[in-house]
Amino acid sequence: MRQIESNEKRTVHFIFNPTVPSKITPFARKYVRLIDGSLAEFENEEKEKFTQYIEAMENETLTEED
After folding, report:
1. Domain of residue 53, residue span
2. How many independent structural domains does the chain possess?
């Protein structure tokens, strides 16, 4: 229950279903890193992983985990 300040009292109910997994967007992943100051390092790691993936695909050495 949350009370919003106004001339009248309002009650707002937030209902969440915790059994449904929430989707994590690319923005949300980057935003967390931006807040803690490690965004540049994270983006470099992601770029390196992507480059390795492309090289493995070109060389036809992809595994099931990739």
Report:
1. 37-61
2. 1
pLDDT tens column, 23-54: 888 888 899 899 999 999 999 999 999 999 99
Task: Confirm whether 5 is domain-assigned.
Answer: no
User: What are 8-27's pLDDT values in tens digits?
Assistant: 766 666 777 778 777 888 88
Closest by CA to 42, choosing from 23, 24, 52, 29, is: 29
Dist. CA 30–CA 32, nearest whole Å? 5
Is 16 within the bounds of a domain? no
Please, are residues 65 and 52 in contact by the beta-carbon 8 Å criterion?
Answer: no
